[in-house]
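Quality-control log, excerpt.
Job 1 of 2 completed; input and output follow.
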Amino acid sequence: MIFLKLKKKDTLTNILGINLKAQLKDIKNIQFKELKQLSFHSLYLRTNELIDITIDIFKYESNTILVDTFKVFTRYSKEEYIYHIPEQKGHIDLVAYQFILDSVDFKIHMNKLKKISLNEINLEAFELDVYRDKTLPEYTQLEPTYAQIVQGFDFELDINAAIAKNSRVSFSMKTDNEKVSRVDFKDINARLTHINNIPSKKQIAKLTGNFSLCSQSIVDVYLSYNQYTKIETFQMDLHGRSINTKALNSIFRPAMNVDVSGTVDNIDAHMVSKGSADGTVRLQSKDLKIKLYKENGKDHKLLTAIGNAIVNKEIDKTGEVEDFEFDKTRPMWNYMWHFIQEGIKKAII
């Protein structure tokens, strides 16, 4: 039996207040089951040239991990990080609060990790802010798909479910005209199941959840994802109701010099992707109007009049989307967002 209380610090990692209780049989082949208790007050980890990780209050005992606060963040501010990258990359701030991992197990052989398994990850809440500066040169490297990332692990990963409640996600970008557009997803509740890289399980990852864009709006999302393919293969179904379009003007106005008013009573999107995507977007709305602006911010009355003559004020129409191409330099969520935009455009005009 060994007991350790350590303070460790180097150029990449800072761990404070470690307490370890373990019963080791063979130092050359340490087994996870020999670990009885582990806790520390704080951890700071530099992972690469931009991203850092911190953990506050970590406790492990009886195959259960409790974490008070977990953060992933870009080391530099939004104003400074652009001087450390040659092309567009996301500026990320993620904070997850009070989460529990139960039935945790690590399979280790000759001090090499072979498998991570656990039952559920329960998060009390998380907040994610993603920012991109579009004034920088286009990001040209291919983004690995989530399936490729998980398949690339040199150990087996097997997680039954991850659950998050009361959470928020914000996406914003500085456009070419130096304005910042932003969209906020509020009151997120989501459950992700069958996260693994074990083909013999034949399990498709599934995400079910809902969020709001404004008060009284509800958007339900269902996603099934094939985690064993080399291309982005998934099906997405979305149903939203009672959406005030003003909630989207924070992204439309800076990016396209347009405001939209009116209510989307219902929106249904169905997207099937196997490298490229097919699907539909059905829109039901009333009193839909647009207002266009000049680059100097003044009303563009002529284009506004023409636009409102083209756009149907009351809509109950389905827009067909075929062979929608996937930009492999962008993540899947960007792909889904632009698919919905394309379907809305076809339903409105």
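Job 2 of 2 completed; input and output follow.
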Amino acid sequence: MVFADKEYTLQNLWLALKSSRKWILASTLIAALGAGLLSSVQTRIFGAKTQLLVSESKIGTPDFRVPNELLRSYETFLLDDSLIQNTINNFGLQRPPYGLSVEAFRRGGVLRISLQKDTRILGIAVEFPQAKLAADIANFFAKQAIGLNEQMNVRQRQRVVLFFQNEMERASENLQVASNRLAEFTQTSRIEETRLLVKHLSERMSGDEARLSHLRTDLSVSQARRQSLNPENNGEELDLSAEIGALQEILRVDARKLSQLVQEKVAKEETLNQLTTENKLAGDNYLMLGRRVQEASLMVSARAVDLRQVSPALTPERPIRPRTPLNILLGAIFGFLASTLLTLLIQNFSSPRKRTEERHDEEKLREIRRGSTGY
């Protein structure tokens, strides 16, 4: 196969193609017609599309940048087995002639989830042999996704509220225990009685000390009078001394008793202060958890991401496959190129033999001419 032969010029190539133009044209038409016929017997597939908007957080400054991680998670979320299974069951796609399973629905090109660049839009595309059913499947799937997302948001709020409610129950129990301990101690410790005893004993000792001081003064006066008037009369002094001694003994006993009562009062007051502090802390903790329950519920609701269908799927009028005009065009191009290439190959194989025959005829013609001229 020698394409670079000197006699095989562009003109000869053009002449070869021109001489085979009918065959090339026929091949092109046949290939186009074959592509059209093949497209006509293929199953028509209709495409329906709907879009879901991923909402922004309801708190804080709006962020107009696309949260890729969030959108990617929702892309995976929309391929959840439960959504697909509910869709299959709702339209009876598991029965003939479809016989679709969850895996076939996901992997067979029936459902496609796509993200629109730099937006919060999730596209849901469904391809199915029936136009209305394709639109119904897309819309039903979108509503199922919205419902499942709402259920997830509700469950999340319930988990948060339940957690804080459990904490509140424990805090309530702690508050009840602290209150009971405080009430029991107040009733059994008799701290108020101890305080009154300390007060009365202190007042009595103050009175006894004042009386003791007064007796000592009287004794001093009596001793001075006796020495100046009647040195032998000491009966009054003896009485005063005896009374002073008795009063001093009473003060010593009262002092010991007061010391014990004061120690007991201090211990009881420390315990009371500790129990009061524990009760106050338990009450404050219970009130704080009550506020946190409300705040957490509002926070979860504000941070919840919602899905909203922004453009429902409409019944498509034309199938997306097969693309008959494109297939016909591609078939015509293939037929033209194939027939042209085949023509060139045939021309290349036939040209050396024709040139050999032409040389052989020329040599015979020369011999005839030489014979006629006598050479």
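Post-run check on job 2. Confidence is low (pLDDT under 50) at residues 1-8, 59-66.
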